[in-house]
Write a structure and sequence with these properties.
globular, 3-stranded mixed sheet, 15 helices, 306 residues, two-stranded antiparallel sheet, metal-binding, zinc-finger, mainly alpha
């Protein structure tokens, strides 16, 4: 789930149930059948219209139970923001995105995927990779993720060196991305509510490589683009909370942007997630000197055209 500022969604009628069932079914069908149903599902998604009735059912009320309040200083413009209200459930199991009223940048306050704490459905990194087959395993060049557990932090990568690389390379564009948001690799929210050591690492890797996904997909940090990235990640990894969270946040957009998300972003997300390599399994540490266009070609990514 993704909660944005005012709280989390509450079940609000049959429209809500229909949307969950439709998206859940679509995600799992894609995961198991992938390319064979790509054209069919893309057409179905393009035909999906969010009616006013469903929209009201989803947005009719904000949960009043277990709400949290937050005030913070925006790292981009330096202004004091808040208090922002959101649900405790979203903070512990989903994703919380708050908006700076001054510069309109979006900030991730919590980035948890509720799928992970469910021990009965837990998967380790090998099982996730097996879902995508041998094609993905070939993308893990010289790195045994389960054993070596590489990290993306200020201590493990040389940001000073990356700044000297040519424009267009992964390393250079990564530093520009960080500087634009006035952040560092260490500023991601810490992983919480995950006791299993293997799953804890997967969550950590997911967060630390999130910015590289942004760069390869050429997604900005607007709310609409952030939703698209989350949906892409959810489809790639088979994480239901991530997938559904992207849809719920998308429905918080105004009608014009809702249509753009459903008709343009969503079909593109599905196509990229099905056809591309599993990006969490990419050894980004060894590709900083390569151009983003070269990596897009290598990992079968066609960037979204804004």
């Amino acid at each position: 789930m993704i909660s944005r500022e005012e709280g989390a969604f509450r079940v609000g009628g049959y429209g809500y149930v229909f949307m969950i069932c439709f998206v859940g079914y679509t995600g799992y069908v894609l995961w198991y059948f992938q390319k064979e149903l790509m054209v069919l599902v893309s057409r179905l998604i393009r035909c999906l219209c969010v009616s006013r009735i469903i929209h009201r059912a989803l947005l009719g009320s904000v949960s009043s139970q277990g709400r949290l309040s937050l005030s913070y200083t925006c790292k981009v413009c330096g202004t004091r923001q808040g208090p922002k209200l959101f649900s405790k459930k979203a903070y512990e199991e989903g994703v919380v995105i708050v908006t700076c009223e001054s510069c309109k940048n979006h900030h991730l306050i919590a980035d948890n995927l509720g799928w992970f704490p469910q021990s009965k459905n837990s998967r380790n990194i090998e099982e996730i990779l097996e879902k995508k087959g041998e094609e993905i395993r070939k993308g893990i060049e010289l790195i045994d993720f389960a054993k070596d557990r590489p990290r993306i932090t200020s201590a493990t990568i040389d940001l000073t060196y990356l700044r000297t690389l040519p424009h267009g390379t992964l390393g250079k564009e990564y530093t520009i991305f960080l500087e634009r948001l006035n952040t560092t690799p260490d500023d991601r929210p810490a992983v919480k509510f995950v006791d299993d050591d293997d799953l804890h690492y997967i969550m950590q890797r997911y967060r630390e490589t999130h910015d590289f996904t942004h760069l390869l997909l050429q997604m900005k940090t607007t709310l609409l683009d952030e939703i698209a990235v989350k949906y892409f990640e959810g489809l790639q990894l088979g994480l239901p909370m991530c997938v559904l969270g992207g849809v719920f946040a998308g429905l918080r957009l105004n009608p014009k942007r809702q249509r753009a998300f459903v008709q343009q972003y969503l079909p593109w997300c599905v196509e990229q997630a099905v056809n591309s390599r599993l990006l969490i399994a990419v050894d980004w540490e060894n590709h900083f000197e390569k151009s983003i266009s070269e990596l897009q070609k290598a990992y079968s990514i066609s960037p979204f055209i804004h």
